[in-house]
Amino acid sequence: MSSNVRAANDVKRQRGTGFTLIELLVVIAIIAILAALLLPGLTRAGERATAIVCRNNLQQLQIAFHLYANDQNDLLSPAETDSGRAHFPRWVNGGMVPWAGTEITNRQILLEPGPGHIGPYLKAADVFHCPADSSRTNIFRRRGPLRARSYSMNTYMVMGDGLSLGPGGEFVYSPTAFVKWADFARTSPAQIFIFLDEHEATIGNGVFPFAWRGGRSGWWNGHWPARRHGGLGVFSFADGHTEAPRWKDPRTGPKVRSMDEVNGAAMDTTGNPDYQWVWERANGGVPHD
């Protein structure tokens, strides 16, 4: 057999073992279809996993909240009394607003002891941060260090509708406030939330302000619950359980790209079932009008 014939046969064999362009396109199309089918399921699985971790974090904060009250003769750790006065009690230190400086990323201060702090009852600062919260020191950018805290406390824990100082420097509490554990007797502890996952654009000094006296159709008082884990909020309650409601209204914790969008977003909640859900669980046993 001549060398030319052998070369021709070799070329035929090589062509026979390869893929045609059409075959490659078919394979690519099949891979794309499989990816389109599998990726949403993987995304939902990831969202469910982060929601479980987030609920576990709030449950640990809730346990610490209980332990603090046990050690303080029934007194509750406050949502916030005065962030400008270090000796006033509050459940946590560290603001999450851009002008708070290094506090935004300082995980250590979350665990340090202080008036009202529950940090010493916890082992790690990770429990203060939602795994789905990707907000940075510059809130609306993807670069930079992660902020240290994602959670806030219901304003009706000790603060209520206002906290003042008496003539002797003692605290004068609002009748709507839960000051001692015994105050939960006026309602069901299973119906009052303590901690929640707060929206990255509105989280501040540890308190979640809420205009409960405004009624079921009030307004978001400058703060939103978070909308993570595929559209869920996450809350812990006084009896120790957690809930992750799926938000129904797009006005609840909307996606925003700047503070201008935050300020321009509607705070009105007329007809918003999500606001009503939070309102029903923010306080109880005291007339709101």
Concise synopsis of the structure shown:
The chain has five helices and seven strands, in the order H-H-H-E-E-E-E-E-E-E-H-H. By secondary structure, it is an alpha+beta fold.
Note down, in words, how this protein is organized:
This protein has 289 residues and is an alpha+beta fold. The chain is built from five helices and seven strands, in the order αααβββββββαα. The strands form two sheets. Strands 5-1-4-6-7 form a five-stranded mixed beta sheet, covered by helices on one side. A two-stranded antiparallel sheet has the order 2-3. β6 (235-237) and β7 (242-243) form a beta hairpin. The longest helix has 51 residues, at 21-71. The N and C termini lie far apart (104 Å). The model has no long low-confidence stretch (mean pLDDT 87).
Helix-strand blueprint:
Blueprint lengths: L2 H15 L3 H51 L36 H4 L39 E4 L9 E2 L5 E2 L20 E5 L9 E2 L26 E3 L4 E2 L15 H6 L8 H10 L7
Parallel strand pairs: 1-5
Antiparallel strand pairs: 1-4, 2-3, 4-6, 6-7
What gross morphology would you assign?
Answer: elongated
Main β-sheet, in a few words?
A: 5 strands, mixed
The whole-angstrom Rg is 27 Å
Total beta strand runs: 7
Strand order of the largest sheet: 5-1-4-6-7
Q: Give the count of helical stretches.
A: 5
Termini Cα gap: 104 Å
Helix and strand composition category: alpha+beta
Strand content: 5-15%
In the predicted model, the low-confidence regions spanning at least 5 consecutive residues are none
Helix content: 25-40%
Order of helices and strands: HHHEEEEEEEHH
Q: Mean pLDDT, nearest integer?
A: 87
